Each structure stands twice: as structure tokens, then as C-alpha cells.
């Protein structure tokens, strides 16, 4: 195996190990403190919000809030499509960015296209997750005003929580795109980007308490 390919492979495995170790650390912390991640606090807030909207018959306020949340997901999904088109365009041309990448990383053309493919898969994942978030939010908007016999507050809360999970996963794909984009300029930048992302996620995932 050429030395440049070995560097690329080691950098990719190191980045996966860094991000995997971070998520394992979060899981271990959540066993002793379920509120370590802000997602747990938000899920309880979603349950309380649904119960209040249904109990106090605040259907108009609920639909307006869901619409604002859906608009944010639509924006991110649309942005993901634009980035996918940009990544495809980038893969079909050998411009200055590719020349800089090959000069800095001394890697061959196969690694260049592999990085672009990984970036495309990541952005496709972001589009998929945000699309699912929009779908679940639309379901919540319909069911939150339905009679309790047809849709209980518990069921509506679960749908809203699932929408939040898809939204979080879509944002994760956006975050992961950063190190992959830096990878185009060399394996060292992938490792540094993964370390920076793990540090940023530690502060983003922690609950305010």
C-alpha cells in the first residue's frame, strides 16, 4: 500500500475512533445522569408541551409552533440539497481545490473521489433525516387536535419526540460534514477536525444544568 494511502486510512480510522469514543463517553455518562444530554431535557419539555396544548385546547398556538419548527427543518433540508448539488459539481471537475488537495495530501485520484462520495452520503443522510422530521411534525400537527380516543397525548408526544430525534440526527450529519470537507485538504486536517468536532459536541450536547 502506498504511503499516502496508508496516511489516509490511518486518519480515517483515527477520526472514527475519536467520534466513537465521544459517543461512548456520552452513553456511559447518561447511565448515571440521564439529563447529561440536552436531548433528554428537551424530550421531557416536548411531553409537557403536548399535554398542555391538549389539556388547555391551544390548537392554534400548537399549530403555529409546529409550523415554525417545520420551517427550520425545511430550510436545513433545502440547504442539504443545494450542498449535494455542489458536491456533485465538485466531483465532476478538476479545479483549483482538487489541485490543492492533491498537492497537500499527495493522494491519488481514487481517494479524492472516495472523499466526495462520503461527503455526498453524509449530506444525503442530512436530507433524509430532516425530511423525516418534517413528516413527523406534519403528523403531530394533525393529531394534536384530534379527540383523545383517536390520539392520546402519549402517542402525540412520542411522534414529536421522534421528530426531534430526526432533527438532531440531521444536524449531526451537518456537523460530520465539517471534518469530511477538511479531509479534502489532507488526512491531518481530518483528524484535527474530528478532535475539534468532538470538543464542540461536548458543549453542545450537555444540558444547561
Order of helices and strands: HHHHHHH
Give the helix/strand class. mainly alpha
How big is the Rg? 21 Å
- Tell me, rounded to a whole number, the average pLDDT: 87
Sheet of most strands: none
The shape is elongated
List the quaternary state of the chains.
Answer: single chain
The percentage of residues in β strands lies in under 5%
**Strand segment count:** 0
Helix content: over 70%
DSSP summary: helix tally: 7
C-alpha termini separation: 49 Å
Poorly predicted ranges:
none
Domain count, please report it. 1
Topology:
Layout lengths: L2 H30 L5 H18 L3 H33 L4 H10 L3 H35 L9 H31 L3 H19 L4
Helix pairs in contact: 1-7, 2-6, 3-5, 5-6, 6-7
Could you walk me through the main structural features you see in this protein, from its secondary elements to its overall organization?
- With 209 residues, the protein is mainly alpha-helical.
- It has one domain.
- The protein has 7 helices and no strands.
- Helix 2 packs antiparallel against helix 6, helix 5 packs antiparallel against helix 6 and helix 6 packs antiparallel against helix 7.
